[in-house]
Every structure is written in C-alpha cells, then in structure tokens.
Amino acid sequence: MSNETTTSMPPAAAQERTAESYVEEAKRAFALDKYDEAAARYTDALQIVSAKHGEMSHEAAELYLRYGEALYFHAVSQTAVLGGQAPVKANGEQEAEGSAPALSTASEPAAPAVASSSSAAPTAGPSTAAGPSAPADSRFSFAGDDSEDEEDEEEEGGEAAQEEEEDDFGTAWEILDLAKVIFSKASGDAARVGQADAHMLLGDIALELERFEDATNEYLTALSLKKDLLPASSRQLAEAHYKLAIGYELTPGHVKRADALKEVETARATLLARLDELKARVEKGGDADTTDDALLSAAQKDAVARLNVEQAQKQVKEVGTLVEDLDEKIVELSAPPPAQSTEQGKTALEALLNATSQNPNAPKIAADAPVNVLSAVKKKKPSNAEGESAAAAAPVAEKRKAEESGEGAEEAKKAKVDS
Questions:
Q1: Taking the model in full, what pTM does it have?
Q2: How many CA atoms lie within 13 A of 215 on its CB side?
Q3: d(C-alpha 350, C-alpha 371), whole Å
Q4: Is the predicted pLDDT of residue 116 greater than 70, yes or no?
Q5: Residue 293 per-residue DSSP state
C-alpha cells in the first residue's frame, strides 16, 4: 500500500507547477543558447499540460509555439556551425560579432489573414549563392590508412549533423503549423497574437530554406494579423514589413524588388513615428505604466507608456540607428539590381529583426536569424486537420524526448551506417 501511495499521480496543482518549472528551465536554457535543451524542457511541459488541458488546448498551443521556436533556433545554430551566420535572439543579441538593436519589441497581436500560407513544410531549392571554395584535395596522404578512416568518420558525422538539422527544421515547421491551427480556432487577442507569432516563425523557416514565396505569404498573413491589434507606430510592425521586404528582395529575378523597396520605406515611416513617441515619453518623464498585462489590450501593452524613462532613452538611440540603416537599404534597393547577382540580400540589418520585449515578464516570441544557404532539403507535409495534427505532434514530442535521453541512439546510428 505504501508503494502505491508514493507512486500515485500528484494533484493537478502540483502538475501545473511542475509544468511551469519546466518552462522556466526552458527559458533559462534558451537564454544560454542551449536550444536543444530548451526544446526538451518544453516537451516535458507539453506532456503535463496536454494531459490536463488537451493536446489542442490554448495552453498547449502556447507551448507548441515555444517548442517550435527552440527547434528553429537549434537548427539555425547548427547551420552557423557549418559556416552560416549565428542566429539572432529575440532580444537582438547575436552569437557572432555585429549584433544590432531590434526592430521590434514585444510579442504581437492580430487580424484576419490577407494571404493564406501553405500548410506544407517548404522544401529547399538549389542554392543560388556562391558557395565556399573547394577544400584542398586530401586523397593523397603519407599518413597511411588512418587518415582515410578519419575522413570516413568525419563524413558520417557530417551527414548525421545535417540530417539532425533537417529534422529540426521539419519538426519545427510541423509544431508551429499545429500551433497556428489551434490559435486560429480560438478567439481573443491572445489567440491572434499567438497565430501571428506562428506565421512569423513559419516565414523564418521558409526564408532559411530559400522558399521565398512561402516566406512572403507567411509574413503577409502575420502582418495582417498584427495591423488590427497594434498601434501604427509599433516596432513589431516595422519588423514584419522589413522581413517581408527581405522575402521580396530575395525572390529570383528581382521581380519583387519594387515591392521590397516599398516595404522598407513603410518600415522606416513606422520607426520614425515610434521615434517621435519615444522622445515625447522621455520629455514627459514620470513612472512607467505598470498595469497588469492581463488587463491590457495588445495595443496597450505595446505603448511607449509601458517604458520607463531609461528604457525610452535607450530605444531612442536604437530606433535612430535603425532609421539610418533603413536609409541605406532604401538607397540600395533604389539602384538598379546587378545583372548577375549572387547576393542573397543579406545585410547587417537582418540582425535587427528580432523582438526585444518591453515587458520583462513577457515571454520571448519573435525569433529570427539571417538567411543561410542550405542544400536541397525535403520536408514532410504536416497536416492541418485538427485530429491529424494533434496525433502527429505527440510522437514528435516523444521522439524528441527519447533522443534527448539517448535511448536507442547507438542502434539507430548503426542501422544508418549499415544501410
């Protein structure tokens, strides 16, 4: 009897606290760039929340969003290890040098979609950018067979790393698509915010995989959602306009270059309006509005009144720098494109695309990273159907947890080598 008592399930309140503790661990891991660990902790939290509220609940959708974000960041960080640029965090920090202030500052609100996004995970097309120079020929060696064995091991390790990276992009897409579906079926500002965030991250994944049409569709939808709930001067809107501009600029053949210019000009106008508000906030002085977030609309949460004077002064400098950078981008896009451009439209400004929360208690949402050129990658098509999406998400989470604990890792590796 005593054994049965000790192994019985804890009460619901204790389970909820445990889920919250997992979320806190995940946030700490994410802040330390331990994205894989963050994803694992979100999986733990998801199991508890899904058991209590259901796999298609709003509470689960919030965790799917964070889980997908962590997987996306992990995948991008792996491309950085392989030669790409380091991912940029939601607070604007970049792992490599050259980080810059963020265009946006908080999680976003929403509205009806303008462009329906593709529910199928995008597949990367062939790279159009100039690749790295070919390595020196290492087929001739005076070190004997050991070097050949080492090369074989390195090849196997590289293939395994790429497969894991591809799996993370595909899994992130599926999880975020599920979150998007759940949020779209719910009502209220919070659901619209979550839906917009999911579309933004799906756009980021599509951009990474060079599926520029998919990326622009996702950004257009997110932008439509944000416009209905955010003030016209929101930095989140500026971020969405600029990301959309990047998607247009990278569209092959420069056929969307004029649209890219228009979006950058809109982002600049948005930031100028924000700059005026920030300066007025500094002049006014006084304490920041500390009203509980639960009592505020998305627009109220995004208002400069939520900033104290020190925060407003800091953002005045940030936004001023961003406007200067956008001026340079406008000049660049106003000039005729090069005849044979292999430039992927990347500028230091892409480090500016991530949300810096005005509210320190607000969860990180909008994460981004510069575009990295990937080889052709095939992704599985996730289902939008409610039942199929929920069913697909459960094994994904279980698989992730099993991989974290190392169960079956050696057997899977052996099977892969034998094949």
A1: 0.67
A2: 25
A3: 8
A4: no
A5: G
